[in-house]
Specification:
Layout (H helix, E strand, L loop, with lengths): L4 H15 L12 E6 L14 H16 L3 E3 L9 H10 L3 H10 L1 E2 L5 E2 L2 H7 L15 H15 L1 E4 L4 E4 H11 L6 E2 L9 H6 L2 H9 L4 E11 L4 E3 L4 E2 L2 E2 L7 E10 L5 H7 L7 H11 L1 E12 L7 E10 L10 E4 L6 H4 L5 H11 L4 H6 L7 E8 L6 E6 L11 E4 L5 H9 L13 E3 L22 E3 L10 H15 L2 E7 L4 E2 L12 E4 L2 E4 L32 E3 L4 E3 L9 E3 L8 H4 L2 H6 L10 H7 L4 E4 L6 H15 L12 E3 L3 E11 L4 E3 L9 E6 L12 H7 L1 H4 L2 E3 L8 E5 L11 H8 L1 H10 L7 E2 L5 H15 E2 L2 E2 L8 H19 L3 H17 L5 H11 L4 H10 L23 E8 L2 E9 L4 H10 L1 H7 L6 E5 L3 E5 L1
Helix pairs in contact: 1-29, 3-4, 23-24, 24-25, 24-27, 25-27, 26-27, 26-28, 28-29
C-alpha cells in the first residue's frame, strides 16, 4: 500500500471542512489560546512558497495547543482594502471589489487571467483555520465597525489628568462650567483661553471648531507626502528613495487639510507598554525609536528681521532641545524648509534662493532626508533671532536635515556639541549668515588622538566628561546642574520651560483614493458631522473612474450618488445637495491601516451584526496569546494597533491594555534566481562558466525551466520569450548552465515558486515539513526545490513503519527499550521545540526517530500510535490517515499529546571500552549498578580478556564505573 499524498490530503481537508474540526468556541470550559497571523493582502499574484512560512509555524503551534487541551482560536482573513487593487482597476478598467473577490475566491478575471485564489491555496496546505470567522476588511459588514470606531474617536478627547480618553461630553461640561484654563488635555498648540461665559456665548459653529482642537481624530492642515502620479497621500513606509513604492512615481511634500489621529496622546503609554509584552528586543527598540521620548526644554527665540533690530514681540522661534545646557554655544538656527515662519521672516534679498530650495526639498521624503547624513544643504533666510540671555543676533537658516514633523521643526544649532550642526557650520564657513563656531566645553581629560583640546574642530556630544566655559552663569557646571539652572532662568524670562517631548507625530488618516473605508462624515458649513451609528455602514458608492476628478478632488468626487440626506438618513444623489437638509459627504477614504488596527477583536465574534465584538467574547478571548508576522510591520501596523486597542480599553470595550502578548517575526524565504549571460550589445548568450571570457549582462529567467544541475533546455528558453527566439547560445560541454543568485522572491525576477506546484507533486505535508526544516523561523533562508525530495522520502519511510505492499503491518508486540527510548526522546524534543519555536530541529528529530525505528524493525502499536500524534502538528494529513488506519474514529486533532516519561531515557547499561595498557581492544555492555569488584570479575572472566592476557596477570586493574576499564601490565 503506497503513500499517496494527493488522495489522503483531499480526503482529510474535506473531512475538516465538513465537520468544522477547527471551530473555536466562545463558551468552552477549556483554557483558551489565541494564535493570530498577520493577515495577507490578496493580490492577483497569489501565494508563493515564502508567504506560508509564518502560517505553517502558527499552525504547528495551534495544533500542538489543541493536543494539550486548549480551546484554540486560529482565524484567517484578508486585509482587502488598499492601493494595489485600485491601481490595477485604473490599469484594467475592472472594479476593485471584483478583482479583490477573484483574488480571494479564485476564478477568471476580466482580463482572462486564471487566478488560483488565496482561499483555495491556503486550504491546500492544510491549515487549521476557523473559517467561520473569516473577515475581509473591504466587506461592508466589517467596515461598518471601522466606521463606528472612527466615530468613537471623533467623540473623544484625552484627559491628561486621568491619563485616558473620555467622551467629548465631559469636556463640554468642563467648558460650560469653568472654560478651558484648567483643562489638562492633549490638544492643538496655541489654543486661546476662554471662560465659561465666553464658551456659552460662542456660536455653535465656533464651539465645533474649538472642539476639533481637542478631539482624538480631527481635521487639520498637515504636511503630507503627496504623490501626484497616484493621486493620493502616502505614508513614509510607502516611499522608497523619494518615489512611491508602488509605481515609482515622484513624491513631494505638500500641505493639505487631512483627517489625523492623535496617537501622540498615547506616546508614553505606548512606550511603557513595551515593558509588559514578550516581543523581540529589536522590535521593541524600533518602536521606542519611533516614539522617541526626549527630556529637555522648550526655548523661545525672538525674531529679528535684521541683525541690528530689536527682537520682535510678534514672532518667535520655539525650539525643543535635549541639551539646554549648551545654550551659550548656539551660533545659528535652522528651520525646516516647510516651517510656517520661513515665508514670514525671509528677507527680500534671500527670497529667490529660499523658494528655490523649498521647491527642491519638497521632492524628498522625510525618510530620505533622515537617512541622508552625507549631503549638506541649506540656505540663509537673511533673518536673525535673538539669544534669550546674551541678546546676540543669531542667523536663521533653513536646511532639510530639520523636519517640520519632528519637535518644533526648528533647532538651535550648537556646532561644538552636535555632529550634524558641526558639519553644517563647517560646510558654510565663511559665507554670509554663518558665524564662527563657539567652544563651550572644558574637557576633564585629553580628547582622543587627532581631536584638538577644546572641541572646536570636532563635535563633543557627550553628557559627561566636561565642565562648561564661555557660558556666563553656567561656567564650571556639568550637564545636570547646568540643565536645571538654564530652565530656571528661562522660566524667569518667560522664554522657556522644562518639557518631555516625543518624536511620534499624529497620524494622517486620509487617503485621496477610492478603494478604502468611506468616512461616516458629512459637512455642514464646512464643519464635519458624524452620521449616527444606527445608519452604518456608509457603503462605498459606484464610480466610473478611479482617478481623481479633473479639478483634483479624490475619486469619490466622481460619484453620482454621494450626499447625505439628514432627514431621511440615507445616501442620495449628489445633485440634491442644498446645504439645508442634504449635505456633501467626505470624499477621502480611510488609510490601509484602518481595518488592520482592530481586526483581531472581530475574529473573537465575527458573526455579530450589532457590535464589533460582544463583551462576553472580548472577556473570554481577552487578547492574542501569539502573533506571528513579518518584521516590516515593526512600527506602523503594530503602533496603530496598540493605539486603537488602548483607546478601546479607555472606552470600556477592549479588556486588556496590550493586544498582543507574544510576537514573533518570521524571516523571509528568499528565491534562488536563475540568470543567463548575454554578451553585451549582441543577441548571443554564454553558459555560466564561460562568462568571464566576455563582457556580459545578466538576465533573469524563469527558475521553473532550470533543473537540479542548473542546466536549461535552450529550445525551451527560445520559446519562453521572443528576445531569446533567434539568440545564439554558446554551450560548455554540450550544456547551457545558468547562474544562481539568492534574492527576494518576486515575479519580476522570475524566481517565484508556488506552493500549488509543490503540493501537487509532493503533497502539503512535505511542503509544511520542508519549510519548517529550512532553518530557524526568524532567519531569512533561501528556497531550494531540489532539497524537498529528501523530506518527501522521509514521509514515505514513516509510512512504511505502518504499511507494506499488502496493507497495515502494525502489531501489538511489546515495545523494546530501544523503541521506547526513540519515541520518548522525540516526545521530549518536539514538545520543547514547539514551545521554543525551534521548528527546524523538531523535523530533524522526526527523521532520527523514524530511522531508528526502521532499523529496530519496530511496528508496535504502543510506539506508532503516539508517534502519529506527535508528528500530526507538522504533517497533519498523513497523521490523520495513520490514526484512522489504526482503528480510531474522528480526527487526531484533539487527541491528548503523549506524555514524556523520563524513565525511558535513563540508561540502565553502559558500553565500556576495555583497554590494555591504554589501548582499547574491545567493548563490553554492563549494567550501570555494578560495583567495581563485580565489573572486574566479569571482565577478567571474559574470553577476550583471557586472550589478550595470554596467561599473564595484570599489575593493576583501573575501573571508573560508568566510564572506563583499563588493565595495566
Amino acid at each position: 500500500m503506497k503513500y499517496n499524498p494527493n488522495e489522503i490530503e483531499a480526503k482529510w481537508q474535506k473531512y475538516w471542512a465538513d465537520n468544522k474540526t477547527f471551530a473555536a468556541s466562545n463558551t468552552s470550559e477549556k483554557p483558551k489560546h489565541y494564535v493570530l497571523d498577520m493577515f495577507p493582502y490578496p493580490s492577483g499574484a497569489g501565494l508563493h512558497v515564502g508567504h506560508p512560512l509564518g502560517y505553517i509555524a502558527s499552525d504547528v503551534y495551534s495544533r500542538f495547543k489543541r493536543h494539550q487541551g486548549f480551546n484554540v482560536l486560529h482565524p484567517m482573513g484578508y486585509d482587502s482594502f488598499g492601493l494595489p487593487a485600485e491601481q490595477y482597476a485604473i490599469q484594467t478598467g475592472q472594479r476593485p471589489e471584483d478583482t479583490t473577490r477573484v483574488n480571494i475566491d479564485g476564478g477568471v478575471d476580466k482580463e482572462g487571467n486564471q487566478i488560483a485564489g488565496y482561499r483555495k491555496q491556503l486550504d491546500k496546505i492544510g491549515f487549521s483555520f476557523d473559517w467561520d470567522r473569516e473577515v475581509r476588511t473591504s466587506n461592508p459588514d466589517y467596515y461598518k465597525h471601522t466606521q463606528w470606531i472612527f466615530i468613537q474617536l471623533f467623540n473623544s478627547w484625552y484627559n491628561k489628568d486621568a491619563d485616558k480618553a473620555e467622551d467629548i461630553s465631559t469636556l463640554i461640561a468642563l467648558f460650560e462650567k469653568e472654560g478651558n484654563s484648567k483643562v489638562n488635555a492633549v490638544c492643538d498648540d496655541n489654543i486661546n483661553a476662554f471662560s465659561a461665559d465666553e464658551w456659552n456665548a460662542f456660536a455653535k459653529g465656533n464651539q465645533q471648531k474649538i472642539l476639533l482642537q481637542y478631539r482624538l481624530t480631527y481635521l487639520a492642515e498637515t504636511e503630507v507626502n503627496w504623490c501626484p502620479g497616484l493621486g493620493t497621500v502616502l505614508a513614509n513606509d510607502e516611499i522608497v528613495n523619494g518615489v512611491s513604492e508602488r509605481g515609482g512615481f515622484p513624491v513631494i511634500r505638500k500641505k493639505m487639510t487631512q483627517w489625523s489621529m492623535r496617537i501622540s496622546a498615547y506616546a508614553e503609554r505606548l512606550l511603557q507598554g513595551l515593558n509588559d509584552i514578550d516581543w523581540s528586543e529589536s522590535i521593541k527598540e524600533s518602536q521606542r525609536n519611533w516614539i522617541g521620548k526626549s527630556v529637555g526644554a522648550m526655548v523661545s527665540f525672538k525674531v529679528r528681521s535684521q541683525k541690528s533690530e530689536v527682537g520682535s514681540e510678534e514672532l518667535k522661534i520655539d525650539v525643543f532641545t535635549t541639551r539646554p545646557d549648551t545654550i551659550f554655544g548656539v551660533t545659528f538656527m535652522t528651520l525646516a524648509p516647510e516651517h510656517e515662519l520661513v515665508a514670514q521672516i525671509t528677507t527680500p534679498e534671500q527670497k529667490a534662493a529660499v523658494e528655490a530650495y523649498i521647491e527642491k526639498t519638497a521632492k524628498r521624503s522625510e525618510r530620505e532626508r533622515m537617512a541622508d547624513v552625507k549631503t549638506i544643504s541649506g540656505v540663509f533666510t537673511g533673518a536673525y533671532a535673538e539669544h534669550p540671555f546674551t541678546k546676540e543676533a543669531i542667523p536663521v537658516w533653513i536646511g532639510d536635515y530639520v523636519l517640520a514633523g519632528y519637535g518644533t521643526g526648528a533647532v538651535m544649532a550648537v556646532p561644538c556639541g552636535d555632529e550634524r550642526d558641526y558639519a553644517f557650520a563647517n560646510f558654510f564657513k565663511g559665507t554670509e549668515g554663518m558665524q564662527d563656531i563657539k567652544n563651550i566645553f572644558a574637557l576633564n581629560s585629553p580628547p582622543l588622538e587627532g581631536c584638538p583640546q577644546g572641541g572646536v574642530d570636532f563635535a563633543f556630544a557627550e553628557k559627561s566628561g566636561f565642565t562648561l566655559k564661555n557660558s556666563d552663569f553656567l561656567n564650571g557646571m556639568g550637564y545636570k546642574e547646568a540643565t536645571q539652572k538654564v530652565i530656571t532662568e528661562l522660566e524667569k524670562l518667560a522664554q522657556g520651560y522644562g518639557k518631555v517631548n516625543y518624536r511620534l507625530r499624529d497620524a494622517v488618516f486620509s487617503r485621496q483614493r477610492y478603494w478604502g473605508e468611506p468616512f461616516p462624515v458629512y459637512y455642514v458649513n464646512g464643519l464635519p458631522q458624524m452620521i449616527d451609528a444606527q445608519h452604518l455602514p456608509i457603503i462605498l458608492p459606484e464610480v466610473e473612474k478611479y482617478l481623481p476628478t479633473e479639478d483634483g478632488l479624490p475619486p469619490l468626487g466622481n460619484a453620482a450618488v454621494w450626499a447625505w440626506d439628514s432627514v431621511n438618513n440615507k445616501v442620495v444623489n449628489t445633485d440634491l445637495v442644498d446645504n439645508k437638509t442634504v449635505f456633501p459627504l467626505e470624499l477621502n477614504t480611510m488609510p490601509g491601516w484602518a481595518g488592520s488596527s482592530w481586526y483581531w477583536m472581530r475574529y473573537m465574534d465575527a458573526g455579530n451584526e450589532n457590535e464589533f465584538s460582544s463583551k462576553d467574547a472580548l472577556k473570554y478571548w481577552e487578547s492574542v496569546d501569539l502573533y506571528i508576522g513579518g518584521s516590516e510591520h515593526a512600527t506602523g501596523h503594530l503602533l496603530y494597533s496598540r493605539f486603537w486597542n488602548k483607546f478601546l480599553k479607555d472606552k470600556g470595550f477592549a479588556p486588556t491594555e496590550e493586544p498582543f502578548k507574544k510576537l514573533i517575526n518570521q524571516g523571509m524565504i528568499l528565491g534562488t534566481s536563475a540568470l543567463v549571460y548575454r554578451i553585451s550589445g549582441t543577441n548571443k548568450y554564454v553558459s555560466k562558466n564561460l562568462k568571464n571570457d566576455y563582457e556580459t549582462d545578466a538576465l533573469h529567467i524563469d527558475v521553473n525551466m532550470v533543473n537540479a544541475a542548473d542546466e536549461i533546455d535552450v529550445e525551451r528558453l527560445k520559446r519562453w520569450q521572443p528576445q531569446f527566439e533567434n539568440g545564439e547560445f554558446i554551450l560548455e560541454n554540450g550544456k547551457f548552465i545558468v547562474g544562481r543568485e539568492v534574492e527576494k522572491m518576486s515575479k519580476s525576477k522570475y524566481n517565484v515558486v508556488t506552493p500549488d506546484n509543490i503540493c501537487a507533486e509532493y503533497g502539503a505535508d512535505t511542503l509544511r515539513l520542508y519549510e519548517m526544516f529550512l532553518g530557524p523561523l526568524e532567519q531569512a533562508k533561501p528556497w531550494n526545490t531540489a532539497g524537498i525530495s529528501g523530506v518527501f522520502g522521509f514521509l514515505k519511510k514513516l509510512w512504511r513503519l505502518y504499511f507494506d505492499e499488502s496493507g497495515l503491518i502494525v502489531n501489538n508486540d511489546e515495545p523494546t527499550k530501544d523503541n521506547l527510548k526513540s519515541l520518548h526522546k522525540t516526545i521530549k524534543k518536539v514538545s520543547e521545540d514547539i514551545e521554543n519555536f525551534s521548528f527546524n530541529t523538531s523535523v530533524s528529530q522526526f527523521m532520527i526517530c523514524v530511522n531508528e525505528l526502521s532499523a529496530q524493525n519496530c511496528h508496535s502499536r504502543a510506539i506508532l500510535e503516539p508517534l502519529a500524534i506527535v508528528i500530526s502538528s507538522y504533517a497533519p494529513h498523513i497523521a490523520e490517515e495513520l490514526w484512522n488506519a489504526l482503528g480510531h474514529e474522528g480526527s487526531i486533532a484533539t487527541v491528548p499529546f503523549p506524555k514524556f516519561e523520563e524513565k525511558h531515557l535513563v540508561e540502565s547499561e553502559k558500553e565500556y571500552p576495555v583497554s590494555f595498557n591504554g589501548k582499547m581492544r574491545f567493548t563490553i555492555k554492563l549494567p550501570l549498578d555494578l560495583t567495581k569488584e563485580q565489573i572486574e570479575e566479569i571482565v577478567m572472566k571474559d574470553e577476550r580478556t583471557q586472550k589478550q592476557l595470554d596467561g599473564r596477570t595484570p599489575n593493576k586493574v583501573i575501573i571508573v564505573p560508568g566510564k572506563i576499564i583499563n588493565l595495566v601490565g
